[in-house]
């Protein structure tokens, strides 16, 4: 049995999430570490960064170490009428680190549900996103938005595509001051400008958000927000799943519900996902799709304290010590719940709490 106390935060998350996803019928999905570079060129706007590590294969094709998992899953799956493909993954991706601004191998876990989706599938994936965050920390929030609702609000305010693009960035930043200025630049009436200000300022408990939004919009996508909110009442994490319209993924690829998860102690969102039907259509697929990714490299930030030691017990022996004696002592200490490093000398940089000397000459 694996002692979870010995696992890093990200390793412990993977260990628990595999079991969680299997319970809901998701199967493991394995893939190559690289894909043809053309896949990423055609969908570069979908990527976190368009900088990709490339190399030439033996047949002359330009290949890339994969910077993303979702594109590979879409590429390697087929449209099956009335069926759903449910997969989860734990893969390394290769992209620029936000912290070091250098290429980094990043561990990423997540799941995808692709096929003839219905409202239950949307609920299941959002609920699984919340359960995923709960495996990491009790202190988390999952912010949910609806891009269809937001786009219709923007179209009603101003049909100009340039305005919509600029407004979305300001909504994502929750920058109400500059949003008001933008509305004035485009000659938008004050009452319509107020609608967008309300969208920015309205976030939090789902029923309260819906009550406030109902005052400014009769948008039919409100029905989907009401329906998902009602279904999420059955989740044990209902109070941690909030509505926040500043969650805006790339609207060229995503549609419908999108979400982002945060845990206490980490500034950036550790989980992101949503419905990406537009991405599917762009890649010539007829199926719907929804999924999310958990950025495991960010979980390193949860290690707020470094332990004052590397191992509980340093056990030292020499050539005169019987191997069975060493093995018996190591097993005895491990069974008592301690970690042990058996060495023939005292390592310079090893930090330990206890010292056990099995050398015949204990003065050595």
Helix content: 25-40%
Q: Helix/strand/pairing class, anyone?
A: alpha/beta
Radius of gyration, in angstroms, nearest whole number: 26 Å
Q: Specify the biggest β-sheet.
A: 9 strands, mixed
Distance between the termini: 37 Å
How many domains make up the coordinates? 2
What is the typical, i.e. mean, pLDDT?
A: 87
Give an overview of the whole structure.
The protein has 2 domains: 4-302, Bira Bifunctional Protein, Domain 2 (BirA Bifunctional Protein, domain 2); 311-357. Helices cover 36% and strands 24% of the residues. It has 12 helices and 15 strands. The strands form 3 sheets. Strands 1-5-6-12-11-10-7-9-8 form a 9-stranded mixed β-sheet. Strands 2-4-3 form a 3-stranded antiparallel β-sheet. The two termini are 37 Å apart.
Please summarize what this structure is.
The protein is α/β, with parallel strands linked by helices and 364 residues long.
List the helices and strands and how they pair.
Elements: H1 9-23, E1 27-28, E2 34-36, H2 37-42, E3 54-56, E4 62-65, H3 70-75, E5 84-96, E6 103-115, H4 119-136, E7 140-146, H5 147-157, H6 161-173, H7 176-185, H8 190-201, E8 203-204, H9 206-214, H10 222-232, E9 241-244, E10 257-263, E11 271-275, H11 277-282, E12 288-295, E13 311-316, H12 323-335, E14 340-343, E15 352-357
Parallel strand pairs: 1-5, 7-9, 13-14, 13-15
Antiparallel strand pairs: 2-4, 3-4, 5-6, 6-12, 7-10, 8-9, 10-11, 11-12
Helix pairs in contact: 1-4, 5-8, 6-7, 7-8, 9-10
């Amino acid at each position: 049995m694996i002692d979870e106390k010995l696992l890093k935060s990200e390793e412990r998350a993977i260990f628990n999430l595999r079991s969680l996803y299997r319970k809901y019928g998701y199967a493991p999905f394995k893939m190559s570490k690289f894909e043809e570079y053309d896949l990423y060129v055609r969908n570069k706007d979908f990527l976190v960064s368009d900088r990709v590590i490339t190399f030439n294969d033996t047949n002359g094709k330009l290949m890339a170490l994969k910077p993303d998992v979702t594109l590979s899953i879409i590429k390697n799956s087929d449209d099956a009428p009335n069926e759903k493909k449910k997969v989860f993954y734990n893969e390394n991706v290769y992209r620029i680190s936000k912290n070091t601004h250098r290429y980094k191998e990043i561990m990423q876990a997540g799941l995808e549900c692709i096929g003839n989706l219905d409202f239950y599938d949307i609920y299941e994936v959002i609920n699984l996103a919340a359960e995923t965050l709960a495996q990491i920390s009790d202190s988390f929030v999952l912010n949910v938005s609806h891009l269809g609702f937001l786009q219709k609000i923007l179209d009603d305010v101003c049909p100009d595509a340039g305005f919509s693009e600029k407004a979305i960035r300001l909504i994502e930043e929750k920058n109400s001051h500059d949003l008001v200025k933008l509305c004035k630049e485009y000659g938008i009436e004050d009452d319509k400008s107020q609608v967008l200000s309300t969208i920015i300022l309205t976030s939090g408990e789902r029923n309260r958000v819906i009550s406030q939004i109902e005052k400014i919009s009769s948008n039919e996508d409100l029905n989907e927000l009401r329906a998902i909110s009602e279904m999420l009442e059955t989740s044990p994490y209902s109070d941690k799943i909030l509505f926040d319209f500043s969650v805006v993924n790339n609207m060229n690829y995503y549609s419908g519900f999108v979400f982002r998860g945060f845990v206490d102690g980490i500034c950036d969102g550790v989980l992101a996902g949503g419905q990406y039907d537009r991405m599917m259509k762009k890649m010539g697929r007829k199926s719907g799709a929804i999924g999310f990714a958990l950025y495991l490299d960010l979980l390193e930030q949860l290690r707020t304290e470094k332990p004052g030691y590397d191992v509980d017990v340093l056990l030292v022996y020499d050539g005169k010590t019987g191997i069975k004696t060493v093995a018996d002592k190591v097993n005895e200490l491990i069974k008592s719940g301690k970690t042990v490093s058996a060495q023939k000398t005292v390592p310079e940089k090893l930090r330990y709490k206890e010292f056990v000397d099995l050398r015949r000459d204990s003065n050595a």
